[in-house]
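Hi R.,

Here's the chain you asked about this morning:
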Amino acid sequence: MNVTVPARIGHVQVSLEEPDKLHVLHPNAVVAFQGLPQHREDRVMDLAGMYRKRKMVRSLFRGPAELVIGLPAGCSLETVEIDENSDLLFDLRHVLFFSDGMRLKSVVQKLKNAWITKELVRMRFSGPGSLGLITAGDLKTIPLHPDRPLFVEAGALVAYPGTASIQLAVYGNKLASQHMPVQWELKGSGPVLIQTGSHDAELEAQLQNGGFIKRLLRELLPFGSVYIK
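And here is the predicted structure, written out as tokens:
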């Protein structure tokens, strides 16, 4: 299986050879398919998958074939290799596709974590195989430390080791902790995968409205927001 990610974010091209099989969890994202019609087979998802995805169907594609999969604006895709001993727990919303032969197991989260993240279960994939992960911004891997905690914004966490110590927290002094979204605090060993797209609406608005000097003048001068565009 060969996945081609173009320089411009917007779509992904997947090439399947004759023995290759690929499960696509977002069939409607496939905007073009070149291959025999019978090389696509839609299947009803298992109960865990149906609950997580709120969808009934996933698509199995067989090679030889070419697929073009569209990506939402601002999102990117990266293929991650998973071995048979992997204990990473994934938010299934980020999984665009996975290679045939991989095993899936649902892992129920603690109630307090599920209440904050609105996600009751995470998925463990056992390889060998490949996962196609779709993220806001790029995908970043950060190694865990057994004593030095890693804090990750709850909405940015894509996957973490099942053996990790994890709890909901904030950090910093009182002012910092009062002005940040809920964080995951993780300790242990192994990689953590995060999406790096910014969720700071205020930062985005500032970037769209001009440079630092303009923003400063708008705030300091009387009627600055009116006269300085």
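One quick note: The chain has two domains: 2-197, 201-229.

Cheers,
M.
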